[in-house]
Amino acid sequence: MSEAEKILRDIEAKTKKEFLPIIGPHRGKILTEIIRKHKPENILEVGTLIGYSTILMAKELENNAHITGIEIDKEEAEEARKNIEKAHVRPTVDIITGDAKQVIPNVPGKFDLVFLDADKNRNMQYLSLIEAKLNKGSVLIADNVRMAEEEMRDYLNYVRTSGKYASRCIPIDEDAVEVSIRL
C-alpha cells in the first residue's frame, strides 16, 4: 500500500470518530476516474479541508501536474499540508489559507480541472471568479449535489442551461456529484 493510500485510509478511519465532510471512497472513485480520463495538469480545489480529495487526485497525477487547494480554516489547512506531505505524492501541491472569494482572483493561470467542495451556496460565486480561467474542455466537479441541491440551485441551473457546459449529475449512494465540461 502506498503512503498516499495509507493516509487516505487514516482519514477515512478518522471520519468514523468525528464528522469530517470528505468526498469519501464512493464519490471519490468518480473523482479518480475523471482524473485518469482527463489527465489534468493544473487543478484548483475550493474547500481542501484536511487534504483527502487533494491526495485522492494527486496520487493519480504525474510530476508535471500542479494542485492549488484553498481552505478557509487555518487548522484544517495546516492538517492538509501535513497529510499531503506524508502522502508523498508526485505533483506540486500548494494549499492557500483564506476565503476562496478573495484567493481565486489571485491564483495565476488556467485550470484543466476545478473541484468545488466548499460552501455549497457559494458555488456560483466561485464559478463566476473561475470561469475566465477555464479552457475549452476544462472539467468542473461539484460535490454534494443531491444533499445540497437547494443551496446549489443557481450553480446547477447555470451549468445545466447556460450552453457553456455539457453537464451531468452522477448519483452515488445518497448523494451525487455534478460533472461539467466547458464547451
What is the helix fraction of residues, given as a range? 25-40%
CATH class value: Alpha Beta
CATH architectural label: 3-Layer(aba) Sandwich
Radius of gyration: 15 Å
- Sheet-strand content, in percent, reads 25-35%
| Overall geometry | globular
Oligomer kind = single chain
Number of domains: 1
The topology string of helices and strands comes to HHEHEHEHEHEHEE
Q: Count the beta strands.
A: 7
Largest sheet: 7 strands, mixed
What does it look like?
By secondary structure, the protein is an alpha/beta fold. The chain has a single domain, classed as Vaccinia Virus protein VP39 (Rossmann fold), CATH 3.40.50.150. Helix content is 39%, strand content 27%. The chain is built from 7 helices and 7 strands. The protein has helices spanning 3-17, 24-38, 52-58, 74-87, 100-103, 123-130, 153-161, and strands at 42-46, 66-71, 92-97, 111-116, 134-143, 165-172, 175-182. The chain has a 7-stranded mixed β-sheet, with helices on both faces. Helix 1 (3-17) runs antiparallel to helix 4 (74-87). The radius of gyration is 15 Å and the shape is globular. The model has no long low-confidence stretch (mean pLDDT 94).
